[in-house]
Automatic annotation (TrEMBL):
Keyword match Membrane: yes
Organism domain of life: Bacteria
Name of the molecule in the record: Uncharacterized protein
Keyword field contains Membrane: yes
Organism classification: Bacteria, Bacillati, Actinomycetota, Actinomycetes, Micrococcales
TM helices/strands, residue ranges: 35-57
Organism, as annotated: Ornithinimicrobium avium
Length: 65
C-alpha cells in the first residue's frame, strides 16, 4: 500500500501539469490530453486520500491493540 501511495502522490502533480497547457482547448489532441491529465489527476487524488486513510486506520488499530 505504501508503494501505491508513493506512485499516486508522484503521478498527481505530473498529471495536473499535463492538463494545464491545453486547458482552453475545446477539441482535438490538446483537449484529449488535457482531459486525460485532469481526470487522471482527480483519480490519483482519490487514491492518495483513500490509501492515506487506510494506512492511518491500520496504524491506529495496530497501536491500540
Amino acid at each position: 500500500m505504501k508503494r501505491t501511495l508513493i506512485v499516486a502522490a508522484t503521478a498527481a502533480p505530473c498529471l495536473l501539469a499535463l492538463s494545464y497547457p491545453w486547458r482552453d482547448a475545446t477539441h482535438g489532441a490538446g483537449a484529449a490530453l488535457s482531459s486525460i491529465g485532469w481526470f487522471g489527476f482527480l483519480l490519483a487524488l482519490v487514491i492518495v486520500a483513500v490509501t492515506s486513510a487506510t494506512l492511518g486506520l491500520r496504524r491506529l488499530r495496530t497501536h491500540a491493540a
